[in-house]
Amino acid sequence: AFEALYNRHRDAVYRYFLRAADSASAADGHQETWARIIANRGKFRPQGRFRAYLFTVAHHVLMDQFRQGKWETGTAIEAVADDSPEAEASALETAARLNALIGALPGPQREAVAMRKEAELTIREIAQVTGATEEGVKSRLRYAMAKLKRGMQGYE
């Protein structure tokens, strides 16, 4: 059962950390999250979605490691496959711009975007994970998306 859960969610957890830090720090956070899931497997109560519980643990790992100063901030640039070198270069430039803009967002907005887009959590689940109100989460997402939209003007 654990292997199936891990295989289903591992990439989303890694991308969540990658939005906040460089790849080495993201790998550390990813590993620590799964170690905590295993160590505390008896604490999960199946009344909610496992994904929400998983990202609650990931959020705690992220906050712990930020407090301990273990993170080197950075943003991920995802490779985009395309047939032509020009299209690939353009897509990489656009991805780099978007990732730089996401990296420049204030922490709570960046985290809300990562949870919504990468982890595919609902507004309610993000609120539960972060301890914010649902309206607060909506506000963070609204401001973040407006900043991203302004920053991406002129890019395709």
* Structure class: mainly alpha
Which geometry do the CA atoms define? globular
Low-confidence stretches: 72-82
The portion of residues forming beta strands comes to under 5%
- The helix count comes to 7
Radius of gyration: 16 Å
Number of strands: 0
CATH superfamily: Winged helix-like DNA-binding domain superfamily/Winged helix DNA-binding domain
Helix proportion of residues, in percent?
Answer: over 70%
**CATH class call:** Mainly Alpha
Whole-number count of domains: 1
In the CATH hierarchy, the architecture is Orthogonal Bundle
Give the termini distance in whole angstroms.
Answer: 42 Å
Order of SSEs: HHHHHHH
**Biggest beta sheet summary:** none
Q: What is the average per-residue confidence, as pLDDT, rounded to a whole number? A: 82
At the fold tier of CATH, the topology name is Arc Repressor Mutant, subunit A
What does this protein look like?
With 156 residues, the protein is an all-alpha fold. The chain is 71% helix and 0% strand.
